[in-house]
């Protein structure tokens, strides 16, 4: 995939090293527990994101930097999460990487299953992905190459530092 979980873990490690308390909400892990009752139908995807937003809000209220690493294909769902976290506490990172790269880096073989019809409603294959229009951070290819997870995490860290999110 795009490397969301790898980047989230690299970011969490760096923030922890700097003395910040963090927690990573990983989409796959959430679907095995909190959201195991949800499918990938549009209404269930909306509920999945709503639940993640509510959990992220609880972490934020407790003073923990919550890093939510998941695909949120619909703008309205991301906007609803943003509304849960006022005062600019919601920072959207858009990993604007080509679908071909995501398919090539797919360790679980999910794109292959979607392409053969074994998974239905897969984002980017037979279900839409609505690109963000107002994300705070956009991670892109650099010179035809995908940045390393550490470089992507550093891009997020730089934003957080520059905008005063990491003040003691």
UniProtKB/TrEMBL annotation:
Enzyme Commission no: 2.7.1.25
Metabolic or biological pathway: Sulfur metabolism; hydrogen sulfide biosynthesis; sulfite from sulfate: step 2/3
Gene Ontology MF: a single term: adenylylsulfate kinase activity
Catalytic activity: adenosine 5'-phosphosulfate + ATP = 3'-phosphoadenylyl sulfate + ADP + H(+)
GO biological process, any: hydrogen sulfide biosynthetic process
SUPFAM superfamilies, per database record: P-loop containing nucleoside triphosphate hydrolases (SSF52540)
Record flagged with keyword Nucleotide-binding: yes
Keyword tags: ATP-binding, Kinase, Nucleotide-binding, Transferase
Span of domain APS kinase: 2-140
Family: Belongs to the APS kinase family.
Task performed by this protein: Catalyzes the synthesis of activated sulfate.
Record-given protein name: Adenylyl-sulfate kinase
